[in-house]
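Researcher: Here's a chain I'd like modeled. Treat it as a single chain, no partners, no ligands.
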Amino acid sequence: MTGSCLDKLLQSIGIFLSAVSSNRYLIEFLEVGGVLTLLEILGLEKIKEEDKKESIKLLQVIANYGRKYKELICESYGVRSIAEFLATSKSEETQEEVQVLLDSLVHGNPKYQNQVYKGLIALLPCASPKAQQLSLQTLRTAQSIIGTTHPSIVECVLKVLRTMHLEVQYEAIELIKDLVSYDVCQTLLKGLVELLIPSVKETRKLQPKILNDSLVPQLTAHLPVFLQQAAAAKAIGVLARSNTSIAEEMLHLRVVHGLLAAMGNSDHCNSQRQASLTLEYFVQMFPVVEEHVRRSMGEELYQLFLSNAEDLYMKIDSIQADILAANKVNVSKVLHQSGVPRSNTTFYLEAHDKDQMDYISYFQKEDMEGKE
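Model: Modeled as a single isolated chain. Structure tokens:
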């Protein structure tokens, strides 16, 4: 069957299924395996994108008939087929039609809504920024309907922060704002704070590829771990400003230590900028933070920070950057000694500190080699 014939056939079926009193046509279409055929079309390489979009529209029509038809689509391994198509589709218009279908399948479908939810999480690591953006949007809806979280959602959402697409980062942070209201809050906050200090394993693995290629000397700005570091600093600022209790909990997780270290990353100015803006809030809100940050920075740098936190990264020299990266600020310890209560989060400081020292040593070594 040629593409044009399939296109006309699918459109004709759509006319019948959308007509008034079309129940008889729907039943006949389902009895001959209509749903399975539509799902199979999505996975065929030789079928045109436009024809696949028509299949999605027909599945939307079927889903709109009610719960038992949504269940039929899901029972036919539909969630997997639809999700895979969303990840591989090259048309943003088609991907938006797929989002409409997935959104329909998560509403009024209690038997399979968890399956749709898991399918959306599985989409987050895909290579299509548009698919990631749409999945994150639909996940917010699904999360509110389901009311409980899947264990893998925190790791998947935090990895999305490595994106260089701001629209995807925005949706990820919006989902993170929702997730702090669920049982994964502590895990999520701890994960964000940890991202402020990338592991040396990540930076060592990626850095040599850039240093050895004279054609792309500026690509350090796009190291995924640095993009993730900057996004984490931004997300922490958003969360802290929205809820003082969350800000206080992050103090126990040594967020100030991590923000100062990120401000010392002279290889990625947006990490420095986002960390500085977020730290400014903590300094303004908590006197204990102001005291320790002033002491760690030194009076000259601290005054520059107070005058313009957003542009501070342009005024920091290499020595000051090293001082920030190597800071040993531990507000958590001070809070503990003062008897300020904290949550039940167990934060493994030893492993975190080891990563931080490796990270500092590695970039100090890079600075020395660059100066030579």
